[in-house]
Amino acid sequence: MAAFSKRTGKKVRPHAKTHKSPVIARMQLDRGAIGLCCAKLGEAEVLADAGIGPLHITTEIAGQPKIARLVALRRRADVMVAVDDMEVARALSDAMRAAGLVLDVLVDVNVGQERTGVAPESAGELAACVASLAGLRLKGIQAYEGHLQHVYKEAERRAKWRDCADRMLRAREAILQRQLPVEIVSTAGTGTCAFAAELPEVTEVQAGSYPFMDCDYAKVEGLPYETSLTVLASVVSRQRGDTAVIDAGWKALSTDSGLPVVKGRPDLQYAPKGDEHGGVKGARLAPGERIELVPSHCDTTVNLHEQYVCVGRGTVEAVWPIIARGRIQ
Amino acid sequence: MAAFSKRTGKKVRPHAKTHKSPVIARMQLDRGAIGLCCAKLGEAEVLADAGIGPLHITTEIAGQPKIARLVALRRRADVMVAVDDMEVARALSDAMRAAGLVLDVLVDVNVGQERTGVAPESAGELAACVASLAGLRLKGIQAYEGHLQHVYKEAERRAKWRDCADRMLRAREAILQRQLPVEIVSTAGTGTCAFAAELPEVTEVQAGSYPFMDCDYAKVEGLPYETSLTVLASVVSRQRGDTAVIDAGWKALSTDSGLPVVKGRPDLQYAPKGDEHGGVKGARLAPGERIELVPSHCDTTVNLHEQYVCVGRGTVEAVWPIIARGRIQ
Question: Would you call A60 an interface residue with chain B, using a CB distance cutoff of 8 Å?
């Protein structure tokens, strides 16, 4: 990703929701990242505590308890947020103004994921509202096409991305037409950043999964990243014929994106066996024997664990806590 | 569950894999539980550290690293384990003998879940092996019918349970025929303990979910337990018409058993929106507005969170850490 940034001139603001680790965030900054994205305020609080910044919170922040936390965080850290609602923008403005602070803001644009964000044609009006409010500083737009990251076929992904790009560019244009600044155009994940790099209007990408990947991302054509993340499991029982039972179930491996695969053993298949157990079909494995599983979704699997055990040259070289695990608010 | 135990005379050894909390374990002991079940060694270590016991580990333990931890745990705690393999029994015996310890053992019987456990007709042979090994003390059988807990219709659940009960009783008989002891017959979860109570041979139940329940368990006919566990979420965006976007996605609510439901609002439906977000269809909710979600599976949802916020009489009365969260090995 550092090489991508050098080659394309696009800045990288990696998403910390994948790794939830200040150690990895620091490695990304050392390799040229301009800051970190966080999904939630709680993640940003943990990274700020570890001296990581600047931080951009990609999910909208609303309601007085969270706004009070955001004010406290802004006092001690360089924080930017995404906004998609005028009433919320006014509440943020009131809070920042009262605290004597200024908060950087990206207008969140719905480019097709249909989750958060305003329609492109409403981006100008929201930007004007933000620009008019004391305590807020309009920096540009966030246009994340999360629904395209796992479209496996490159041609299909590119074609769908083109629609998202059009919406992103229309939103940018709508803001510029009002003589307002769009310094930042923040977009793309691991699956689409190569496309985003082709647009001169894009200033940065928000990719998160590239350090780890997973067995679903591995199916996405055209990505240069290798899978680095596995869950180590061991056999607890061999009483079911050619299906060994291991100690890794739904509490060890997320299920939102399908089943994990057994690393280096295409002859073996994982079969669900509940919260605490998994089945491994295809070979007779002995109790205590170990296998490595490549998760189907890195973000939600990392969120289940307490630490990374970092293995290099056949030995454990480091153990890093997943400090922001569970910080979902 | 305490009333059930008094009424039926069956002992209760609640399963800590659901709550992963020494505080709740202590409450269960105070209400008459004879000890706690743990799914994994890591869970048992945390409970032992908190002075909770005796402990029974329901998943087989195999491999030297885990056996070494079990020896260390046995030195300081009253621990029993499930065994389904003669080779593993011998390894446990060697380790316990070398340490000058004795470990209580239940023979794990496969009563139809097809996960761990020996066939009923092999229970006698395995029991004889365990009984012959120094450092191990044969206590009886574990016969858990996990696959029946969520069979919604009571008549169907009972009919299927009858087969499991037959297998359990055959295993017990096979051991008794060898003049070996079956002091303990440990079986049943929240969904089947009422049936198990009808058998004089059953000594205890392993129910875990009853303190919390969930929206899937709520569909199981004939259970007297109420739902107590919810996830508090707040609206972050209202740009998608009648679907509000909230801050609770796959990292806040497990997906292995379906979708959560909105507590007290049958007019609202949860819709998945990825790791960090959820959708709530059916009403226009304002940013910052809060809703409570009843998870579809209490065990795997609890495992995502750091703490219980205990609310009574409209106020927060306690905050309990989920200390054994993530202890999956």
Answer: yes
